[in-house]
Design goal:
single chain, five-stranded antiparallel beta sheet, alpha+beta, globular, 2 helices
């Protein structure tokens, strides 16, 4: 009976920490490596509006590509692009990948993106779409 108590207590102690799990850095590095577009951008405008439900916000970023490090779409420096994504207000204790950060006007940052059929761009590396390791 004593031998079974330790694993049960250990599981009960560690379970709350598992619920707060984030993706491993290697998962984000893999997403960055696979991103069709790797750019440096300057944010020109950010628009945030309500999403499809009360826990979401739609983000529309207008940015200029200041440097093109990798492209699958023949993107050129100084081109203006639209980046679209959704931010979700997660409940406390939510498990899973982190939220894509809200960019600010005049931010200069790296961007890992994918081009949509509509011609806009979307983040390709989750919460690490706008930063390097």
């Amino acid at each position: 009976m004593q031998a079974m108590r330790f694993p049960i207590l250990l599981t009960a102690f560690l379970f709350p920490f598992v619920l707060l799990a984030e993706l491993a850095p290697s998962a984000y590095e893999a997403m960055q490596a696979k991103a069709p577009e790797h750019l440096r951008i300057e944010v020109l405008r950010v628009d945030v509006e309500p999403g499809e439900d009360s826990s979401q916000q739609k983000v529309h970023v207008v940015a200029m590509a200041t440097a093109v490090l990798r492209t699958a779409t023949s993107l050129k420096p100084d081109e203006i692009i639209n980046i679209l994504y959704t931010m979700n207000n997660r409940p406390a204790g939510w498990a899973g990948p982190g939220e894509i950060p809200l960019l600010g006007e005049k931010d200069q940052t790296v961007a890992y993106l994918t081009k949509t059929e509509a011609g806009d761009f979307v983040p390709a590396a989750g919460r690490m779409s706008f930063s390097n390791f």
